Amino acid sequence: MHMEPSLVRSRVAVAVFFAVNGMIGFTFLPRLAQVQNQTGLDDAGLGIVLAIGTAGGLIVGPAAAYFVTRFGATQVTAVTLLVSLPAIAAIGFVNSGVALALVLAVWMSMDALTDSAMNTRALALQSAYGRSIINSFHAWWSLATIIGSALGALSAVVGLSLPSFLTGMALVSAGIVMWAWRADTANVPLTHVAHSPLRLSTLPLLVRSGVGIVLGFIVLAVIVEDVPVRWGAIYLAEIGQGAAVIGLAYVAVTGGQTIGRFFGDRLVDRWGQASVIRISMGVVAVSITSALIQGSAAAFIGAVALSGLGVATLFPAAMNAAAQLPGISPALGIAVVSWFSRVGFVIAPLAVGLIAEGAGLRYGLAIMVIAAIGLVAIAGRVDR
After folding, report:
1. Mean pLDDT for all residues in the chain
2. What is the 3-state secondary structure (H, E, C) of the chain?
3. C-beta of residue 187 within 8 angstroms of C-beta of residue 335
């Protein structure tokens, strides 16, 4: 089917937004130990600072619906990305925990707004295309996180100073964002109801709309996605693996997720979202259970690679469902689900840690199996 040039150009521009957002947020992570040293933080202090940064997104996130409705998804995406870039660059210059907490809070606040706005814009384009394309946007985000991490690691290998590296990345990213802002011109707003601001009187409407099912879905999806990323390396170390093997856990998850997202739209169009979720989560439940029972590194790495493939379409599916909740604006639905996903990224590691403390890490990781089974059970309701 022939598409208008402006629509194709906007799709490319929004993919660029996703890619910049994914890349820039991962550039400094391989050098986080250096940031810790230059700020003089111990492990506990760094943990507190990182939590403060996350809190910035939790506080600002609910305002995304207002800004998107008031100024437009493209404008909010571009402006918040541009505002976040100086904060990323500043990470290379901070010399205290307080300064690091402030710049992280600014970055995560802008990231929360960017996340909602760019997903709203992506779903508007999907509506215009008349078929699933949302997974492809998230695929570019996933691929960009790998590129960002690789660039961060490479900068350390070649001896490039952290301030110079992050400043250079911010400047290049700013130019790319400005191009995408000008290129995204297709007039395809995603609005099927009037603006619904997030306030106390809106809460009963959110409950009646079925948002509870979608929020439950996103928490379960976060567990399946986040647990192997945060705990995979620890589990492999616990069963006696060396650094080379331990690093494969992260590569397996992110690589599988990236591949799954590039092919996800075709699968959703062919089989339907509910069927894709049921099959993929069934495979995840079986593979993770088998790997934990067997206890070998090879089995676990293979299982988390399958989990990366399996979770590929989950977050895009939640955003798509949020945009279609009856009686509330798409921008509000997406903002609420995006905000709640950040809560999930706090809950998931805590749950694993508590279970692992009492029964062992293997049982803690088994929470992924429970979450996958839960997703199989509610896939049909989310799809509807």
Report:
1. 86
2. CCCCHHHHHHHHHHHHHHHHHHHHCCCCHHHHHHHHHHHCCCHHHHHHHHHHHHHHHHHHHHHHHHHHHHHCHHHHHHHHHHHHHHHHHHCCCCCCHHHHHHHHHHHHHHHHHHHHHHHHHHHHHHHHHCCCCHHHHHHHHHHHHHHHHHHHHHHHHCCCCHHHHHHHHHHHHHHHHHHHHHHCCCCCCCCCCCCCCCCHHHHHHHHHCCHHHHHHHHHHHHHHHHHHHHHHHHHHHHCCCCHHHHHHHHHHHHHHHHHHHHHHHHHHHHHCHHHHHHHHHHHHHHHHHHHHHHCCHHHHHHHHHHHHHHHCCHHHHHHHHHCCCCCCCHHHHHHHHHHHHHHHHHHHHHHHHHHHHHHCHHHHHCHHHHHHHHHHHHHHHHHC
3. no
Comparing C-alpha atoms, which of 117, 113, 148 is closest to residue 25?
148
- Of 18, 267, 169, give the one whose Cα is nearest residue 10: 18
Asked if the structure places residue 194 within a domain, the reply is: no
The last residue of a domain, from among 150, 185, 220: 185
Tell me the CA end-to-end span of the chain in Å, nearest whole number: 26
**Do 240 and 343 fall into the same domain?**
yes
Cβ–Cβ contacts within 10 Å for residue 287, how many? 22
Q: What is the CATH number of the domain that holds 139?
A: 1.20.1250.20
Residues 376 and 245 in one domain: yes
Angle between helices 273-294 and 297-311 (to 10 degrees): 170
Domain residues for the domain of 106 are: 5-185
| pLDDT tens track for 42-78 | 867 887 887 787 778 888 888 888 899 899 999 999 9
Question: In total, how many domains does the chain have?
Answer: 2
Both 229 and 301 in one domain: the answer is: yes
Q: What is the CA radius of gyration of the chain?
A: 20
Q: What is the pTM of this model?
A: 0.82
**pLDDT tier, 190 (very low <50, low <70, confident <90, very high otherwise):** low
* Last residue in a domain, options 185, 215, 230: 185
Q: Are residues 212 and 257 part of one domain? A: yes
